[in-house]
């Protein structure tokens, strides 16, 4: 693989970026353009006529994909290549095999051993869920468990939380999920005070088994259980790496394993994500979710950019970020159910691609990952859309929507349903951002040329949720391959951890005063904490 | 007021920006610097030694504040100047008087009529809350009401929701709040299915009384109440403008008014915010909240930049955005209770300052509002902080923290409490971002010089919440004054609304096919909606 700026297609695109497609000119948006710049995959349509691209630019983006070997790299990832590494330097040196968690539907998985391990954990989950359903596993008073609280942070929280929330409409009767993440003691306090502990299971999730926040919250929970006269070993589950400090079945009702080749931010389809999901929705829904993801894993290996939604999303993102120079991207789902999905993608994208060195450890001379942010529409229309339409910062937008609601509870007003209003608003925003509008009142002018695309499916279900998740995972991976960075490590979180430990050791040993800790000590004093 | 680029101080700052303070050099961060670059106001400390400023830059920022007349403009706002206008063009032409809602603690309010109106509505709220407490107002079965569901969107949702969530720890026994905002029918369906309608009040909030989303959800709620055999007029409240289409007391249990000089995004201290807050926390807490805001309103009129936190936050933001060129700002509260506060500030800031024309309707030749985003720490440390530390986009950060938790439920592990771990992590991140760290492994290098500040108070209470809110409202207003834009209109939301109406009219009259609607019709067809 080559450095980004060493690619021929990059130079071609720099040239094309001097005259990006003008969406505001007369007849820029024709019916033919709407039809041509549309593609479909695994139940999703992507409408991208409102991006600042034309046939030449798309051709150059295809050349970029080919020259950088993006699809080959994703295939290598899925077959178990050691992609989580920096050549010549100490690094995690691992495979990247989250796709194996869902490569369980064919006779010939791309990474057989990893898929076999995933199958083994899924079988354990299935029997556990069966035992909960048939009354074999009940609380000490013989009652069924009604709530599962997932305790994890980062990748052990954001994806699983976003997906459980998204699919809440499909919950089994009497089952629900809660989440605790923050080391802030108010987080656990607020969740715990509203629970009946006696019918609650706690699912403690930490790959390393050493995550400060998670272990702290686990302790707080075990204390609460004991105080309520309950046996923690009967209420607490573990999802962790085999052999981690948390891998101690005597302390947990059940233990599920995750492998070190599954990064936290890519772990939503591993046990990290599917234990709580299975508790709430049942095992069949978990399998649908995995199936949706798996279908996209395979479809994402299609080399034609215009038939491959994650690849196209990746390249349109690179066009907007590296060539048109826009520093952020907003992900705006027109679905309240997806209200936390942008937060998951923010983590998955920014932790993967917020890097400054290449796979060979050289400093990059080009932009890598953008700032990713977003909130659901139509809410955002009454909030930050003002800046998106008329501000001095141009924000590329990725809309996500569904033709039907999950619950089917709706009301007709002025001849249209709420769901129709929701989707019509999304499409209207897409057109408004692209086309803009002139006005003799300068405060009512809209510049237009604000690039955006619309990703649309029939309905948010376990299966389409799985597909949507995998599309974004691969969009992010494709971009990382193209920028020639390691999207699978997270060295940037270390320094803050080390400094926090130093400050905490000053708090426990305030008389110690030496070396670089002096500044931290003064910081604590000046902040009024010591 | 002058254009931003016509200010002498701006040219001086452009010059100073060629050599911003280098936080990574040896001894850049001394104890003396930590102590000097700290200020206090209304119970909050601001630590800003980790910004890229020195004495000269701060002096130039003071000159900018003076030359642009920022404090004078805020005083004019608070006394009722017509600041919501564009000279020479049609505009809202209104006063901006959200501060009057809390200017109720002295004999001489700055805008007497507006404060008298606020007092009148507060008195109505107080008697209503008394009647709920003493059993005068009960449901048709004689039971007390336990839940209030606020139905509103944008400013009628984000601020009130963020603040209710922040102060949940102080709820009256048996009282809670829920929120419905989105036109997505799944939003209302999910909230309604978990409620006992018979003991629920619905607080419908729309200043204009014409907000599509809110009226649609009100209809859905009235249908549900009737279906449950309940009388909507006994369960539904209104907060709206006097004389709006919703101002019809026969249809509502109670009606509270808001004035047209209070913008939606600045309405959290008006009836828009305090009715639900008062239901959950009681009237005394509402008064504390207003008091905290009022104290900051007055303190923000202090002209010395280094003694005025909102002014200093505004100018540091301008330094980072206009002079150092950073397009976004992250607001990262180390408090799970403030988990939705960044979303409120995102609206308040981006809708206020995402503008491209001056107060005289000329196109700006400088950057206005940044993209504002954020999530609570420590959660974010396990997510997007990777990019903040090591990405190619530099993100200025505003940390917010508290020395004590709200609930006081905590656990000691390795000699420190969770609350200590929380605050130590925040301070450690502040230092790490500023100082960076070299390493022989390039993937473990931290560039540093990532500007940030820490805003710190003892505890999140109704009073400190009010102060925090007002600090950010005035930060935003000061920046808008400095950029010479109208921070109080929102013309940018109109185009999308108009186009959405066009698309909806196509859906109800599909045979109509003329003029510019053709494109919308084809968009609907291609999206599979027609």
UniProtKB/TrEMBL annotation, chains A, B:
GO cellular component: cytosol
Identification of the protein by name: Glucose-6-phosphate isomerase
Transmembrane feature ranges: 271-290, 311-334
Major enzyme class: isomerase
Catalysed reactions, semicolon-separated: alpha-D-glucose 6-phosphate = beta-D-fructose 6-phosphate
Any Pfam family: PGI
Family: Belongs to the GPI family.
Cell location: Cytoplasm
GO BP: any one term: gluconeogenesis
InterPro entries: G6P_Isomerase (IPR001672), G6P_Isomerase_C (IPR023096), Phosphoglucose_isomerase_CS (IPR018189), SIS_dom_sf (IPR046348), SIS_PGI_1 (IPR035476), SIS_PGI_2 (IPR035482)
Gene Ontology molecular function terms on file: carbohydrate derivative binding; glucose-6-phosphate isomerase activity; monosaccharide binding
Record-linked PANTHER family: GLUCOSE-6-PHOSPHATE ISOMERASE (PTHR11469:SF1)
Keyword line: Cytoplasm, Gluconeogenesis, Glycolysis, Isomerase, Membrane, Transmembrane, Transmembrane helix
EC number(s) on file: 5.3.1.9
Pathway the protein takes part in: Carbohydrate biosynthesis; gluconeogenesis; Carbohydrate degradation; glycolysis; D-glyceraldehyde 3-phosphate and glycerone phosphate from D-glucose: step 2/4
Active site (record annotation): 351, 382, 497
Xref: Gene3D superfamilies: 1.10.1390.10, Glucose-6-phosphate isomerase like protein, domain 1
Matches recorded under NCBIfam families: PRK14095.1
Record organism: Desulfobulbus oligotrophicus
SUPFAM superfamilies: SIS domain
Organism domain of life: Bacteria
Function: Catalyzes the reversible isomerization of glucose-6-phosphate to fructose-6-phosphate.
């Amino acid at each position: 693989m080559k450095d980004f700026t060493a690619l021929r297609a990059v130079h071609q695109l720099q040239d094309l970026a001097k005259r990006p497609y003008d969406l505001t000119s007369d007849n820029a948006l024709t019916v033919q353009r709407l039809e041509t710049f549309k593609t479909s995959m695994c139940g999703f349509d992507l409408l991208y006529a409102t991006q600042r691209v034309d046939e030449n630019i798309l051709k150059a983006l295809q050349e970029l994909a080919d020259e950088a070997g993006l699809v080959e790299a994703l295939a290598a990832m899925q077959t178990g290549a050691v992609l989580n590494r920096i050549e010549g330097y100490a690094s995690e040196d691992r495979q990247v095999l989250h796709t194996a968690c869902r490569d369980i539907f064919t006779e010939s998985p791309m990474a057989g051993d990893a898929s076999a391990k995933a199958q083994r954990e899924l079988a354990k989950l299935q029997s556990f869920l069966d035992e909960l359903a048939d009354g074999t596993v009940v609380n000490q008073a013989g009652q069924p468990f009604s709530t599962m609280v997932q305790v994890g942070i980062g990748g052990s929280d954001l994806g699983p939380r976003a997906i459980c929330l998204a699919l809440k409409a499909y919950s089994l009767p009497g089952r629900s999920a809660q989440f605790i993440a923050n080391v802030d003691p108010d987080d656990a306090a607020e969740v715990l005070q509203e629970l009946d502990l006696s019918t609650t299971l706690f699912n403690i999730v930490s790959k390393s088994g050493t995550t400060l926040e998670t272990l702290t919250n686990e302790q707080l929970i075990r204390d609460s259980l004991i105080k309520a006269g309950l046996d923690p070993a009967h209420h607490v589950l573990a999802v962790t790496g085999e052999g981690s400090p948390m891998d101690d079945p005597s302390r947990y009702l059940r233990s599920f394993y995750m492998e070190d080749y599954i990064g936290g931010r890519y772990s939503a389809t591993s046990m990290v994500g599917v234990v709580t999901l299975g508790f709430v929705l049942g095992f069949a829904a978990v399998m649908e979710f995995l199936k949706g993801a798996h279908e996209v894993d395979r479809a994402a290996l299609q080399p034609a950019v215009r038939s491959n939604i994650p690849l196209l999303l990746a390249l349109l993102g690179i066009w907007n970020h590296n060539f048109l120079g826009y520093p952020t991207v907003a992900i705006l789902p027109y679905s309240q159910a997806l209200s936390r999905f942008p937060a998951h993608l923010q983590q998955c994208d920014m932790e993967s691609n917020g890097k400054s060195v290449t796979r060979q450890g050289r400093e990059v001379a080009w932009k890598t990952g953008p700032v990713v942010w977003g909130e659901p529409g139509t809410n955002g229309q009454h909030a930050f859309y003002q800046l998106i339409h008329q501000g001095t910062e141009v924000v590329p937008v990725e809309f996500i929507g569904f033709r039907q609601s999950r619950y089917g509870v709706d009301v007709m007003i002025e001849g249209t349903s709420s769901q129709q209003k929701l989707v019509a608003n999304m499409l209207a925003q897409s057109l408004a951002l692209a086309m803009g509008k002139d006005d003799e009142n300068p405060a009512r002018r809209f510049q237009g040329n604000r690039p955006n695309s619309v990703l649309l499916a029939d309905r948010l279900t376990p299966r389409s949720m799985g597909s949507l998740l995998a599309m974004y995972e691969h969009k992010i991976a494709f971009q990382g391959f193209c920028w020639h960075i390691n999207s699978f490590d997270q060295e940037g979180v270390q320094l803050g951890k080390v400094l926090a430990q130093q400050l905490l050791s000053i708090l426990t040993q305030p008389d110690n005063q030496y070396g670089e800790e002096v500044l931290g000590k003064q910081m604590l004093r000046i902040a009024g904490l010591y």
